[in-house]
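Dear support,

I submitted the protein below through the web form. The confirmation email said the job was done, but the results page showed an empty box. After a refresh the structure appeared. I'm attaching both so you can tell me whether what I see now is the final result or a partial one.
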Amino acid sequence: MKLSDNTSTKLSASFYLNEFTISQEAERHGYKNEPNEKQIENLRLLCVNVLQPLREIINVPIFINSGFRSFDVNAAVGGRFNSQHLEGKAADFVVHSMNLIDVFNTIIQELSFDQLIYEFGKWIHVSWNGELNRKDVMISKKVHGKTVYEKVIGDRLKVVG
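What the results page shows now:
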């Protein structure tokens, strides 16, 4: 795969590489956000094993907010030093035509994954790590200006309020 073919490189039936590399932060600062072959393969595996099956289950478009992040982009957005976005193993996304909690619960119940995070009630973070998948489910929220992660116990996220 040539990186210059970014716009047309298909990762799965519904997802293209450029959806995972577009970054306003990279453009704003002039950072390169181009994955290498291994990172592209990780993105493909994320699509084939999680995002494409989810797309087929819910039958509506999934919009990627953040996929691959170069070191500079990850630092600029305040990402963790060990973020799976750096490896091409994670994506943050929204589904405009569905309740995000329903999408989150569908992933918990129907798919294998490494991490699944309901982030600030606004988007979903999901990652794929193959045989090392932990099926780790969390919600994140801001408490006194800091991001706090809480583990979700059980097979559904229930939000009250």
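Response: this is the final, complete result; the empty box was a page-load delay. The beta strands are 63-66, 90-94, 115-119, 123-127, 136-143, 146-151.
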